[in-house]
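Need tokens for this chain, all 225 residues.
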Amino acid sequence: MITAVIFDLDDTLYDEINYCRSGFTSVSEFLADLPQAPPAEPIFDCLWKHFTAGNRTKTFNTALDQLGIDYDDKFIGELVKVYRNHIPKITLPADSKDILDQLHGRYTLALLTDGFLPAQQLKVQALGIEKYFNCIVYTEELGRDCWKPSPVGFEKVTEILNVKPQDIVYVADNAKKDFIAPNKLGFMTVQIIRPARIHTESSDQPDAAPQYVIHKITQLPDLFG
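Here are the structure tokens for all 225 residues:
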């Protein structure tokens, strides 16, 4: 019997693309303060164009080249810090809030999220969701090698909640890495496919596929309610 629900964060409880937009806005405002730099709006447009075209690893470099702004590796590192440490302008979607309100009190809830620690903590604070969870595990605090698909974060949550794996459902979005460990551990696994999701990859690894797929988070209780 399902007694605990563990949620992923990005593209599970909210659209991560909104966080990316917020981060690039902060970087644009930072760059606009440089001498002889263009205004923030065209800087953002340039960053956003390259990011949404699929450049996810060299967005800053490519945009700065186009904008004619000099940089080195140290400066790129500063922009990365601005992005990760900014106060995100994101909100919890109404359907996610409704589900958390509905499940809170009926099930033990937890949050398990990969990503750089300040950024993930700031996202949780901005969304105002701490109150829903009996525990929040940031895998970055356990070590970079504990990011998914490592089982360490899942084992940590199971230990904290003192719940048997077969009584847990894990809800996440990324079919490439999210479900490998919980499937092996015996969790029930559910993939949510949000229309604006960033990660659309899949994996041919054993145990990578979720057991269930939903397209609206409001469908979740029907699977185990």
